[in-house]
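Pasting as-is:
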Amino acid sequence: MNKLALINGILLNAAEQSPETALLITDDRIDGVISKTEIPSEYTIWDARGHYISPGFIDLQIYGGGGVLFAEKPTDESLRTMADALVQSGTTGFYLTLATNTLDVLKKSIEVAKEAVHPAFMGLHFEGPFLHPEKRGAHPTSCLLRPEMETFRDLLEHASGTIKMMTIAPELFNPEQITYLRDAGVLLSAGHSTANYEEATQGFAAGIAAVTHLFNAMSPLHHRESGLPGAVFLSEHVCASIIVDGIHLSYETVAISKKIMGDRLFLITDAVAPATSGTYHHRLNSDHYVLPDGTLSGSALTMMDAVKNAVRHAGIPLPEAIRMATSYPARLIGAKDQGQISAGHLANLTLFDSDFQVQHVFLHGIKQR
């Protein structure tokens, strides 16, 4: 049995945040937070040297990492390379995201996911292929599909529960289709959509629980038609992800959205990786990715970057920015043992300094860096 006591750290997203406390870990779980003068003798002391201690970050929309775009080569090796790189960057839980692609690639991804054992991998997020062509962004028209029950059944039977989340255009769906996917255990998120306020609200009522990368690839917030952004702003329960890189949308828009949505707004990276084959050819353009024709196709963010930008550029207090990267996405997906520094939760921890540089990561209680 491995017992560890972390001292001299600044705890974030914990009930007790005194510098005189110790964070106790046994094997893969957090035991609790106590005074460091009361640490039982069987615990090994580990000095955090004044670094912030956050729950491990949770990214519900990421396509690649470690120089690997998973969809280019959907293999177990690609997933492990990607997952290991994400953990090193402070992300201890993620939904591997597949943008609109051929059914062959989607099914190959499912096969890999069914055999995956990496502790940071939490399931698949299919961003598409049931999206509106007018708001497709970087998604190829040739791979977009109209929603059909037969297609849903085929994918879900093949997936055996590995598809955890799906981004859909609600205006293309009827309520029965949305209910079917929701009841099958798929978290539905509205995105790449022309939905007006009424269509979006009807989708929420049928079971859509989130909105994908708020403001990007969706109907605009207009003073005569508030669209999908207006619908989620006025909702009392629907959440939204947001990309805080200063490129996908301005930091002022992030600040406005945060002020309106509060704890329903959470961070994603939407990060891709370079690719020269397959459906997507992503090219790094300074601090973001584009397709060969210049279309914005993804970010180059890490979750640590997103937290930093939220604090430094959108005026969000650090503890709240951490919640946007940890407890809020955990709550949305029902991960009850992640996202907080609390007794019984997984010992997934990210330690970083005042310059937002990740220094150490614990995954299931095991130090990774």
